[in-house]
Design a protein that fits this description.
single chain; mainly alpha; 2 domains; 8 helices; 0% strand
């Protein structure tokens, strides 16, 4: 039954994800490929949509995949599955947090997890860049990337603080529309 499968698969993703939504992307990719729910290009497009819509990327992704596989009930099952572990852990941590963080073992475990998460997120970004073959052949993608990179560093130099991701998304949307209209 697809609903139980969605609930279980996304429960596992939610349970084993550390480092936020970007840390979940490799788990989501593995789950989607193992179950044959979508191909790599569709997954990459869906991740881009999930990132640019309001809400956490992991929840948006689960909802999108769930709705593709089982309609509204599938979306509910996948979304519930992915948020349930975090909800349970946050309830547990809120009760035990002070006691747990006083233990050297807990501090050591969290210190060990941090570099792993940084590596997972970096590897995911590199994998997505490499797998997006159209990125290297689409001149518009290269132009937008170059403009956004320059914009980011100029903004950082002038304002002495990073650009808001919201502003970057808006600028890239406008650039994409302008470049597409030119074609």
């Amino acid at each position: 039954m697809i609903y139980l499968k969605l609930l279980w698969e996304f429960f596992k993703i939610g349970l084993f994800t550390f480092g936020g939504g970007y840390g979940a992307i490799p788990l989501i990719r593995e789950c989607v490929e193992r179950n044959g729910w979508m191909d790599e290009e569709m997954l990459s497009n869906m991740l881009a949509i999930s990132e640019s819509t309001p809400g956490p990327i992991m929840v948006n992704t689960a909802t999108y995949i769930g709705s593709m596989q089982g309609g509204i009930l599938g979306a509910v099952c996948a979304t519930f599955g992915v948020i349930l572990p975090a909800f349970a852990v946050m309830i547990l941590f809120s009760v035990l947090l002070k006691k747990v963080l006083e233990k050297p073992v807990a501090v050591s475990v969290l210190s060990g997890i941090k570099p792993c998460i940084a590596g997972i997120i970096t590897a995911t970004g590199i994998y997505m860049l490499i797998s997006a073959t159209s990125f290297f052949t689409d001149i518009n993608s290269l132009i937008i990337t170059a403009i956004l990179t320059a914009f980011y560093f100029i903004f950082l130099a002038v304002r002495k603080k990073p650009v808001s991701p919201i502003l970057l998304i808006c600028v890239s949307a406008v650039l994409g529309a302008l470049l597409e209209a030119r074609n």
